[in-house]
Amino acid sequence: MGLMKKFRDYFLEEDYEDYEEEYEAPQTEEEAPLLKAANKANVVSLQSVQKSAKVVLAEPRVYAEAQEIADHLKSRRAVIVNLQRIQHEQAKRIVDFLSGTVYAIGGDIQQVGTKIFLCTPDNVDVSGAISLDGEDDRPIKRW
């Protein structure tokens, strides 16, 4: 107890006795779990706190690069995928692969442009919608 008092006196400028009086030890065994639950309600996990969000821009040239994009999603980063420079069949395969990845992590995938997709994990919420040029005039077709 003497060492703790020295630490308190060193780090705290005001009297610690005021704080000790406010603390009430549980009177019975039934009150102890309630006191612990009340103290845990104020605790925040450091893993749930993030410094900043990161958005990754990806422009895959081959289907094998889809796994790198999926790794970013698993790391809870949003990814904008530009598929304009890849063959249409490979682009379809990449979108199918990323759709499965996004579904598995509880995220979302949205088309935000011609062959441009926004893939987000579950910790990112996207609000609003982007309408593609002339979308109202054209019949609905798969990108």
Task: Summarize it.
With about 140 residues, the chain is of the alpha+beta class. The chain has helices at about 1-10, 15-20, 30-40, 65-75, 90-105; strands at about 55-60, 80, 110-115, 115-120. The protein has a 4-stranded mixed β-sheet with strand order 1-2-4-3, with helices on one face.
Mind sketching the topology for me?
Layout: H1 2-11, H2 17-22, H3 31-40, E1 55-58, H4 66-74, E2 78-82, H5 88-105, E3 108-113, E4 116-120
Parallel strand pairs: 1-2
Antiparallel strand pairs: 2-4, 3-4
Helix pairs in contact: 4-5
Q: Would you write up a description of this structure?
A:
Strands 1-2-4-3 form a four-stranded mixed sheet, covered by helices on one side. The model has no long low-confidence stretch (mean pLDDT 77). It is α+β, with helices and mostly antiparallel strands and 143 residues long. Helix 4 runs parallel beside helix 5. The protein is 37% helix and 14% strand. The chain has helices at residues 2-11, 17-22, 31-40, 66-74, 88-105, and strands at residues 55-58, 78-82, 108-113, 116-120.
